[in-house]
Structures are given as structure tokens and as C-alpha cells.
Amino acid sequence: MKLISKAGVLPLVLLLAAGGARAQGAAKAPSMLKYVNPNIGTAHSRWFFYTPAAVPYGMAKLAPSTNGHYGNASGWEAVGYDTRQNSIEGFVHFHEWQVGGVSFMPTTGELKVQPGDLDKPGSGYRSRFDRKNQVAQPGYYQVLLDDYGITAELTATKRVGFHRYTFPKSDQAHIILDIGNKQGESSDVTDASIRMVDATHVEGFVSTYPKYVKTYDPSGKVNMYFYGEISRVPASVGAFTAAGQQPTAKSATGKGAGLVLNYKTTAQQKIELKVGLSYTSITNAKANLAAEAKSLTFDQARTAAQATWQRELGKIAVEGTDEQSKTKFYTGLFHALLGRGIASDVSGAYPKHGGQAGQLVVSGAGPKPEFINTDAIWGGYWNITQLWALSYPEWYGNYVNTELQVYRDKGWFGDGLANSEYVSGVGTNFVGLAVAGAYQVGIRNYDVNLAYQAVRANELGYHHRAFGSGKMDVKAFTEYGYVPFRDDYKEYKGEWYKTDSSGAYFANSHTLEYSYSAFAAAQMAKDLGKTADYEQLLKLSNGWRKILNPQNQLMQPKLADGTFVGNFQPFEPWRGFQEGNAMQYTFYVPQNPAGLIAAIGRDKFNNRLDSIFTASAKTGFGGGKEIDAFAGIKAIYNHGNQPCLHISWLFNFSGQPWLTQKWTRQICDEFYGTEPIHGYGYGQDEDQGQLGSWYVITALGLFDVKGFTDARPIIELGSPIFPKSIIQLGNQKKLVIEAKNTSKTNVYVQSAEFNGKPLTNCWLYRDELMQGGKLTFTMGPQPNKSWGSQTPPPSVQ
């Protein structure tokens, strides 16, 4: 085939993306992009939350930063972009859990090489901006920098960031490449280097030692590499470091390193940069740039990025007149698909421990595997993994393969990962449960025997266990059947909330979590014929019974001698319970809801749970309007954090499914918002798409309390928000969900049928649902208490 000309060729990536978008139905539905509002929830949002200039699961996640260089003393709090702040200090390329760096900023006038103070405009190169002059869309960002009259635009491919700066007329125009300062969660820069390769190319690297790497993987490091192409030769180049400026230098190393590209610009003159990124080497950053963007223009990259978003968002098409709920839905799906970013290169190279590079092995048919950076999967089995399993199974497979690669390299799973380094923020480890869930839903593009070996080690192994792999109290759990509470471990020899082989300060939440994950591993063991393992793990899955106090029917910390701890206060957070309290965690028995209901008594269970939601509705199902991630940990229910996310679905097991319909719908309507401050509650902790994913699957009326860990997983049915939803299933079949008469008031299921056959239960087996077809609900304003209440979902042990 003869190509017309290099300039006229539409790059392959653009053709594929645009063609995919057309194939997904450009003729039938308006763009899903218009319903995505990245600005929702941007008060007190995490470092990785606001990154509009990216593609799904991209490495290149470009975003403006209002406070990024301040860093983050504890390593995890809200930092980066905040809707309450009105100046921008730069546009940063890397945004992952514990990973951040490489900031660019265009300016005019007197050269300044420090970003300056947030509350002191003019103290550095940061610029004020007005949000009316800001555009944030999936795959694209634009803003006017008021102090300089510069319009900045950003977009991206998977591994390449694009900048386009439109300058005013100026004899002193600059582009500041500030790579040597901490960004977001990355902590201080330990080493950095940047240099001009030639007149229009720049390369460099940044090494950091994030707080959680220091804590959980002390010999680790996080390296970021880049190779950039500049559309216009600068008039001159200067350098700077923490020690000061070097006006004629073309390279810089060490802390505070950076370059300045100086220009004389005419009015409306555009300067563009393409920046290839990598976590393994400059060579691979250059190769990523060549592979993905060699002849791609900014506008073509933006078009391709947004076509990709349309295709991926369009896998779940919802219809109806409720525009606000559509905005919540697609913004939630956007965050789910944005959350965890790839760390592997086009060549398959991936970052190993300590700054080394490894090579992913391609086995079998299908797409090449990707290695991903990820926050903990703590709570993810109630949102992100269920969404992956529904319509994005390749990402569930990438997650499993990433964790198995880490297991091969380091001997243990790692709950949170930053370039293969352990960064588990919660000290537990649910990777085994997530892997078992993938196995049970048929995602098996990996070595199953190796996977089971790793799952078993995660649940039962404690000899020479790596601290960063979490679960340092597994020995105690396997010996006692529960984790003994250690009150003295609140702070022990300088270590907060200590865990070791004798017990833990978070003993009760650990007991409940390990019981759940033991159940998941047991079901996988049974399917693989590991009978002895199955029996041991199933016994451990009942550890929750040992800490349920029959007197108050609450989960109460228990000492090693078998007595319940004194001075017990059910609403007291932290004491025995990570990021929660006894009132919240008492319902944490997802593996055996029937057992918990029987232990408490069905009527008492229902009355208590219903009263909890009645009370929590008054505070927006969380911490009220307090803007803090932990605002709700003292509350009776806290939707803003992971431990509570299954509770509203438990009424399906207790014979009152209409209350699941009522409360899940009310949470969707009231906890979730469409404003910058009221987005994911007020005190949100949106862990890389988890809360957004919960909204998506709940709005569809589909959920599994057990996180697909049953030998034959089920799907619980709730209250679908939209009159019609068309879902492209991961097996390429199609599922249509129709909810007749659904509205803000018609939240209760009157009847249901699947493929023309009446459904009398509030659940069905997942493998049946995944055959596709049509699931139809008839909705009404009053509960039909006879529908779905006779046969609860199975609670097989």
C-alpha cells in the first residue's frame, strides 16, 4: 500500500481508537464524555484522583497541580489539585500511589525557578487562574494562566504526555522543566538528572524514596524516566538546582534540578512538547515516545485519547432523562478506568525492586500483559474487581499477573505496589482474595498452580514473611483462630498500630479480614482438590465467631487469654479496628452472612441494620460535611471508606431485600454528588476508582457481597437507577437491564424476569447472568415485600 504523505497519514493508534469508537455505536448514543466531570470531588482529593489528560490505565497522567511540591508528611493524604485553591504551580506527568514527579510550567517575564507559596502569588513561578477558563475532559485539559496570559493544554497516549502552550507576545517567555522537587506522595527527590540531548530533545530521570517505600520496603526506590521532544528550538537554555541558577548550562543533576527553555514569542505562538515516559530507563522512555507518538500531533493525540475514552466508557451505556445520575455514573466509571496505571513499557520491560528492570513473559494468545501500579485492593472486591469482571476482564487479568510477577520476584504478594515496591498502607493483604475471585469468574490467563501457591502462602505463611507484604500476625491468627488484641501496640517503640506474630492493635479488623480471605482461599483450594488446605482454611474462615461477644452482639477485641477487652466503646475508632469502629465492623462477615444473621437473630439484625441507615442518612452516610478522609470513622456507618461498602446489600440475605433497594438507592442519591466539594461524600477516600466503581455497579442493580469468592459466584439484585442499561460483557455477549417505571421515588422492585422467565429471588448465579440477554425489573413507590424475600442468596460454607 502506498502512503500519501507522512503529514497526511492518520497514525495507526488514531485509526484504531476512532474506529473502535465508531464500532461501539457512534450512530446510536451521544458521547459519554459529556457526562464525565473530572472536577467532581476535587476538594481534599488524593494525588492520583485528578488527572484528566490521560487514557484509561495510562502511565502518562498529566494534570495541573496547585499544591504538589508541598509533598505529604504522612505519605497518603490529599495533595495535588484542590478546588479550593486558585493558583497552579505546574503540570505533572506521573500520578500514582506513592509515585509523582516531572513538572513543567510555562511563564513569561522575570525568570523564577521556585514554585513559590500557595498563599503568596508572585513568590514563585506559580500562576493564578480562574476556573471559568478551565476545561477538564477525559483525555484533555486546558487552562488560562492569568499571571502570564498563557493557555496551557494537555493530552496523552498511554506512555506519552503532550503539552501545548499558547504564548502572548513576549521577549521573556520560558518553559520551566522542574524535575528535582518532590511531587505529591513521592517524598523528597534523592537523585535527578536532566540534559538537552540536542536543540529540540531533552532527557532525564528522577529517583524518589516515598514515605511508604521507606516504611514497607526500605531498600526500594521509585525511578521515573523521560525523553522529550520540543516543537521549537529555544533561543537559549539555562539550568538550575537547589544551589541556584546556571544561566548558560544545558544540564543539571541532584536535588532541585531543572532546565529553563527561553523564547521570544509572538502573539498566539504555540510551542508543543511530547514527553515519553518510563519507569525502567531513558532508552525505554525514548522507545515509548517513538512507538506511540512519533508522528502524532497534539490534536491527533487528543482525538485518539477521547475516542479511546468513548469506546471504554461506552461498554456500559445507560439511558434515561436523569442527567445528574448519568454524570455520577460516567464520572465514577471514568475514575474506575483511570485509577491504576500501567508501569510496563511497549517492549514489556517493567520496574523491579530497587530500580532494576524485568521483562514480562508473554504466554498464550490475547493481548500482551501489562504490569500496573496499584493502591491496596482493600475493599476493592466490593467495587473495582466486580466492575473489571463484568466488562473489563483484561484489567483484572493484568492485576493478577502483576501480583504474580511480584510473587515470583520477591516471594510474597504486595497489597499496594509502586514500581514493584511494597507500599501497603493498611498492613493487611487482600491480594489472595482478589486472585481467588478472578479464578472463580473464569479469568485464568496465568499459571493457576503458581497462583494457588501464592494465595496459600498469603493466608497461611509467616516464616520469613516480608514486612511489606502485610499480615504480620498470620501466625497468631492460625494458632488462636483470631488475632489477639494488644492494647500496648497502639504505639510500641515508636511504631504506630503495631502488628507482629503475637497479635495486633487492629486485631479485630484483622480477624474479620483474614476470616474472609481464608474463605476465598478455601474455595479455590477445594476446586483444585487441595482437601487438607480447604479444611484448614474453612475452619479459619469462622474466626469471626471467636470475637463476637454474645452479650452485646458486637465484634469486641479479645486478648490472648480468651477474655474480651475492658473499657470497650462501640463507636471508638482505631482501637481494634483499622479506619473504623465496632459498630461498622460487626457486619464484616461477607463470607457467611447467614451465619452472622443467625448469631444475632434475624429480627434484631434487620432492626439494628435499618436503624443504622436511618441514623446515618442524617449525616449523608458518612462524616457529614466535614472535609476529611477520616471524617466518618466515628460514625455508625461510613460510606467514605472501604469496610462498610457491602453492608447495605446484606438485607438481601436477611429476608428484607426491599431495604437493600431503599438504602443503596439513597446512598447513590445522597452520598454521591456532582460538585467539586460534594463528590464522593465530603470526607472522601476515593482509592483509585473504588467509590466510583461502587456507584456504577450499584446503579446497575448488580453486586456480590462475597466479591465472587464462592465456588459458584452469585449476583445480588438491587434497585437499578436507569430505565435501560446496555452492557458489553467481558465475554463479548450483551446484557440489557431494563427498569420499568424507575424514578427518584420508584425505587422498589415489584417483579423481575430474566430472558422472559420470572425471577422470584433477589439473586441469580453469575454464570447465568454472563450468558447475556435481558434482565427486566418493574419498579414502584412501595416495597413488594413478597418479592425476593423467601429464598436468600446462598451462604454456602
TrEMBL record:
<dbReference type="GO" id="GO:0005975">
    <property type="term" value="P:carbohydrate metabolic process"/>
</dbReference>
<keyword id="KW-0106">Calcium</keyword>
<dbReference type="InterPro" id="IPR050883">
    <property type="entry name" value="PNGase"/>
</dbReference>
<feature type="domain" description="Glycosyl hydrolase family 92">
    <location>
        <begin position="284"/>
        <end position="781"/>
    </location>
</feature>
<dbReference type="InterPro" id="IPR008928">
    <property type="entry name" value="6-hairpin_glycosidase_sf"/>
</dbReference>
<dbReference type="InterPro" id="IPR012939">
    <property type="entry name" value="Glyco_hydro_92"/>
</dbReference>
<protein>
    <submittedName>
        <fullName>Glycoside hydrolase family 92 protein</fullName>
    </submittedName>
</protein>
<feature type="signal peptide">
    <location>
        <begin position="1"/>
        <end position="23"/>
    </location>
</feature>
<dbReference type="GO" id="GO:0006516">
    <property type="term" value="P:glycoprotein catabolic process"/>
</dbReference>
<dbReference type="InterPro" id="IPR041371">
    <property type="entry name" value="GH92_N"/>
</dbReference>
<feature type="domain" description="Glycosyl hydrolase family 92 N-terminal">
    <location>
        <begin position="35"/>
        <end position="278"/>
    </location>
</feature>
<dbReference type="InterPro" id="IPR005887">
    <property type="entry name" value="GH92_a_mannosidase_put"/>
</dbReference>
<dbReference type="Pfam" id="PF07971">
    <property type="entry name" value="Glyco_hydro_92"/>
</dbReference>
<dbReference type="InterPro" id="IPR014718">
    <property type="entry name" value="GH-type_carb-bd"/>
</dbReference>
<keyword id="KW-0378">Hydrolase</keyword>
<dbReference type="GO" id="GO:0005829">
    <property type="term" value="C:cytosol"/>
</dbReference>
<comment type="subunit">
    <text>Monomer.</text>
</comment>
<dbReference type="GO" id="GO:0000224">
    <property type="term" value="F:peptide-N4-(N-acetyl-beta-glucosaminyl)asparagine amidase activity"/>
</dbReference>
<dbReference type="Pfam" id="PF17678">
    <property type="entry name" value="Glyco_hydro_92N"/>
</dbReference>
<dbReference type="GO" id="GO:0030246">
    <property type="term" value="F:carbohydrate binding"/>
</dbReference>
<keyword id="KW-0732">Signal</keyword>
